[in-house]
Amino acid sequence: MAAEKLIQTLEKLLKLHQNLYEVTLQKTEILKHDSVEELKELLKKEQVFVQAIKQVEDERIKVAAEFLGNNEEATLSACIEKATGAEKEKLQGILNEFTEIMNQLKDRNQLNRELTKQALQLTSMTLDMIMPQETDINYNKPANKNTEKQRRSIFDSKA
């Protein structure tokens, strides 16, 4: 009975991760098309999935601890070792699916990170072109370094 509840919880968690992966695919397309408003909406949707995953993960930990008898670490591998027969095969299948979806999420998030970085570099370069450094045409005596004008950028690249 505890194994059934564990399998149901794991399937729910897997489905949430698959949905999150779909959102990351959408994010890639939005980043490619540079649509800020769509990106904002998608980030809200992504946050909803992340919160749901946290809640189901907490539930999974409780159910796994029940299944294992609270004497072991509540990992999926430990649950597979304790399970028998069809339940063991089902849990192994879920583990394989989790491994696959996590690798896909990791790869897609890396791509999205690179696309975001490139977009920020492009924005920074564009701002530099729009707001060029002021240069004096005439010779001036160098001012004290503390009172020297500093160029201020609208975009803080360290953020």
Automatic annotation (TrEMBL):
Composition-biased stretches (Basic and acidic residues): 146-159
Keyword Thylakoid in record: no
Cross-referenced Gene3D superfamilies: FlgN-like
One Pfam family this sequence matches: FlgN
InterPro entries documented for this protein: FlgN-like (IPR007809), FlgN-like_sf (IPR036679)
Keyword hit for Thylakoid: no
Keywords: Bacterial flagellum biogenesis, Cell projection, Cilium, Flagellum
Domain of life: Bacteria
Region of interest called Disordered, as start-end residue ranges on this chain: 137-159
Protein name as it appears in the record: Flagellar protein FlgN
Source organism: Metabacillus endolithicus
Lineage, broadest ranks: Bacteria, Bacillati, Bacillota, Bacilli, Bacillales
